Amino acid sequence: MARPVVPGMRTWPRNLSTSQRGGLSTSQYGGMSTSQYGGASTSQYGGLSTSQYGGMSTSQYGGLSTSQYGGLSASQYGGLSTSQYGGLSTSQYGGLSTSQGGGMSTSSGSVYMSNIPPWPYFVRELEARGYQQQADLIRQYLPQFLWPENFF
Fold it and tell me: What angle do CA 59, 63, 67 make, to 5 degrees?
């Protein structure tokens, strides 16, 4: 069972799989795809878009929003939540989980989906906003090649 589907919220693959539709895939619908609606796209609804629902958006459901379900929310299901399904949770289906369905999984099955921007961008944004403790926690689980200073 995965986190609940929220009508109107956009999500992208955010695990560590390089397979098609995986979080590190650059193919269409992949987490690092720059094509329209892709996980690393700057177009409307993309994972690096600042428009409403985008991964870099601070509006409701955006990847950098502090409202419920937002990438910077610590409430249940939020990107900074440590509860089940939360972005900083190490339990199954959590953002820092290495098991299938988790954000640090390399599995191509049951891919972790999130509204946050790609991991290197998210860590950089957390640090810029003063969320150093959360950024450091993510770095403990994130492969070094995805750390912002090694990625960009």
Answer: 50
In whole angstroms, give the CA distance from residue 53 to residue 46. Answer: 8
- How many whole angstroms separate alpha carbon 106 and alpha carbon 23? 9
Per-residue pLDDT tens digits for 41-95? 999 999 999 999 999 999 999 999 999 999 999 999 999 999 999 999 999 999 9
